[in-house]
Each structure stands twice: as structure tokens, then as C-alpha cells.
Amino acid sequence: MKSNLILLMAAAMATTACSKDGRMVTESAFPIELKAVTLERQGSVKLYTKSGEVTDEAVIANFIASERGFNAPFAPEPSNTITFTTDSTAQLGISAVLYRVSREDNDAVVFRSPFILGPYATGAVQWTALDTYRLGKHNGRLETFHSGGQLLYKGEAVIYCQGTYQSLLFPIMIYKLYRHSGTEGQASESMISGKLFNEFDEDFLTTLGDRDTVAYQQSYVRFSK
User: Fold this and answer.
1) Helices in 15-122 by DSSP H: which ranges?
2) Nearest 5 degrees, angle CA 211-CA 139-CA 127?
3) What pLDDT score was predicted for residue 179?
4) What pLDDT is recorded for position 177?
5) Residues 6+ positions from 136 with CB-CB distance below 8 Å
């Protein structure tokens, strides 16, 4: 009987591991797949210029008229998943990017992935990519470095979620940014729009020029096992 008890204890120890936040997690629990189940919170569309917030609904509607993401109905697809491959790594949907995952403050799950903008992105393409990165509230501080005579940027894309490995609120931000610079005859225009897995960084507003405009809508989707 004693030898059988020892074998059972050894088997139990072999199938458990201590996670980074001190909890005991069975190794067989991973992978854990969460699916998008409901749109839990959705804010109104916010629009800003250098002068401040624009609240005229007609102006807002006109600026976002060509963007289908704003005020879109919630319709999750089979690929809208989060898969925790281990207690410290995860994948979003069908993307091959492997995020580092950590638990923070006992009420948050944080995803991190390195960000590098290389010399392949030049001119307007480079600046729009940097703008997209800077829109995210939780993204890491950007640093510059040189490689092969080229200036590159590096940082860390960070997604901050409330919840646990079983159920969490995932931030999704729809945005549109219009920039206009230069003088008459030498004017430069650029427009970027899309979806970010982040929250809007209000410090971004300080980068707006006299004729720049940015709009965003913040939502939170519930992912559950």
C-alpha cells in the first residue's frame, strides 16, 4: 500500500507545474483556447484635432463614413480565438506570432511581442507605421538604433487585458488618422485606418498638427473558454 501511495504522489507531481504567479497549474491544462463570445463594452466614436475634441455628430459621421469598422455589429468568426499554448505563451487567432504572457496585479493578463521597424519602411510608410504603434496606450517606449548604416526603431507591442486564462476582456480599437503637412504646392497627405488590439493613448493627441485629425472607437470583447 505504501509503495502504491508513493507512485501516486510521484505521478501527481509529474503532471503539475508552478506558474509565474505562484498558482499550481496542471501541465495537461494547456493549450487553453478562448473564443470571442460577446461585445461587452463599446464606446462612442471620438474625434480630435489639434484644437481639441470635436463633438459635432455630422462632422464625426462624415470623417468615418468610408470606414466600415466603426459601429460595426458584433459578429465573431471561428478564427477569433486566443490560445494559451503554455502559462507564459499565447497565439492570437491564426497568427503565427507567439506572444509572451504574464499575470499582473492578480487581475490582468498581459501579452507582449517585440516590435522592430526596419529600413524597409521608408518615407511616409515609415511614419504611418510609427503612428500606428504610438496610438497604443500600453505599447513600450520606442528606441532608435543603427544597423547597416540605417536607422531602425524597436519597442514592445503590449496588450493589456482584464481577467484570467479562462475568461478575459480583450481591447479592440478602431481608428482613422489623417495627416496634412507642408505648404501649398508642396503639401503632403497621409491617411491610415484599421484595428488595434490596444487602448487609445491620449498622449498621442500632442502629435497632431494644425490640419491633422484622428478618430477612434474603443471596445472590449469577452473571450471565454
Assistant:
1) 57-63
2) 40
3) 92
4) 97
5) 157, 158, 173, 196, 198, 199, 200, 201
Identify whether the C-beta of residue 171 lies closer than 8 Å to the C-beta of residue 160.
yes
- pLDDT for 1 equals 41
Q: Which residues contact 173 (CB under 8 A, 6 or more apart)?
A: 135, 136, 195, 196, 197, 198, 199, 200, 216, 217, 218, 219
Residues whose CB is less than 8 angstroms from the CB of residue 150 and which lie 6 or more positions away in sequence, other chains included: 118, 119
pLDDT class of 166 with cuts at 50, 70, 90: very high
User: Domain ranges in the chain?
Assistant: 32-224
CB-count burial class (<10 Å; 0-12, 13-18, 19+) for 130: middle
| Residue 73 DSSP code | P
Res. 28 pLDDT band, cuts 50 70 90:
low
Residue 26 parent element (H or E): strand 24-26
Name the grid cell of 38: 460577446
Among the residue ranges 15-19, 89-93, 188-192, 201-205, the one predicted with the least confidence is 15-19
How many Å separate Cα 97 from the centre of its chain?
13
Using DSSP's 3-state secondary structure scheme, residue 97 falls into coil
**10 pLDDT more than 90:** no
Cα separation, 143 vs 118, in Å, equals: 12
